Amino acid sequence: MVRSWSIVDFAYVWFGGFLGAAVFFGIGSLFESSDLAIVVFALAGQYIGTLSVLWILKKRKEDGDLGFSIETRDTYYIGLGLILQLGLALLLLPLAEWLFPDGRPPQQVAEALADRDASLLLRVSLIGAAVVLAPVTEELVFRGVLLRAIQHRGRLFAIVVSAAVFSAIHVPGLGLERMLASAVVVLPPIFILGVLLAWITIRTERLGPAIFIHSGWNLLAAVVLLLPPEMLEAAS
Questions:
Q1: Of 55, 116, 149, 229, which is most buried by a Cβ count within 10 Å?
Q2: Distance in angstroms (rounded) separating the CA atoms of residues 12 and 54
Q3: Where are the strands (E) in the chain, listed by range?
């Protein structure tokens, strides 16, 4: 049996998520016409593929612990995620307005969620995926597998590299339109988030705090996208 996690394991898990997303995207495209429904299908496939490969690999490990431990006090970290998301958004607001005077940087999931013609069930499903499934799955992969695989090279190296990979994985979600400009606005906050999540995981030796910070981060974005456009215009 294999003793610990490696970069190869991370690649297997990532490929499992990619393959699952591709398969479910194809299925969704055959049976659904709504862009949001197809996105939900693809996300479901991604999580199923990722967690399935993770479960298979974990069974082969002598030391398969990823620190998946959640305590009641971890829920307080949701507030930290909300504050961090809001603070970085305000900090980068002038740059975002300069690069995108006609609106926010395009992001595929965000645009699908902002579709006002989508059914309530689909919108709630996507929000649930963003606030619950995404934080759990991504923390298991990035702060679980990847961070453990490279931590022997030093804490600073592991924190920076895992955060860089975490932010780079989000590039395809920016869409093809003005991808470089979108990356300038979107990726630095995600990198900072990745640094914080890696640091707190190493410090606590658990994934619970990182999961709830990640959940709070996604929660604020989802709430903003659900607000009526006229409310957002009045606030700005």
A1: 149
A2: 8
A3: none
Quote the domain boundaries for residue 123.
68-235
Q: How many angstroms separate the Cα of 186 from the Cα of each of 105, 114, 142, 154, 170?
A: 8, 17, 19, 27, 9
Residue from 146, 174, 112, 147 nearest 11 by CA: 146
Q: Domain tally for the chain?
A: 1
Domain membership flag for residue 55: no
User: Distance (Å, rounded) from C-alpha 95 to C-alpha 64?
Assistant: 43
Distance CA 21, CA 124 (A): 19
How far apart (Å, rounded) are the C-alpha atoms in residues 70 and 2? 26
What distance in Å separates the CA atoms of residue 32 and residue 226, rounded to the nearest whole number? 22
Whole-prediction pTM: 0.88
Asked if 158 and 202 count as a contact pair (C-beta separation under 8 A), the reply is yes
For 48, the token pair is: 């199923």
Cα–Cα distance measured from residue 198 to residue 47, given in angstroms and rounded to the nearest whole number: 21
Evaluate whether residue 12 is within a structural domain: no
Q: Where are the alpha helices (DSSP H) in 141-205?
A: 147-150, 155-168, 179-204
pLDDT in tens, 144-161: 999 999 999 999 999 999
Q: State the pLDDT confidence band at 211, using cuts at 50, 70 and 90.
A: very high
Q: Tens of pLDDT along 110-155?
A: 555 555 556 667 777 778 888 999 999 999 999 999 999 999 999 9
The answer as to whether 9 is a domain residue is: no
Choose among 236, 234, 213, 230: nearest CA to 70: 213
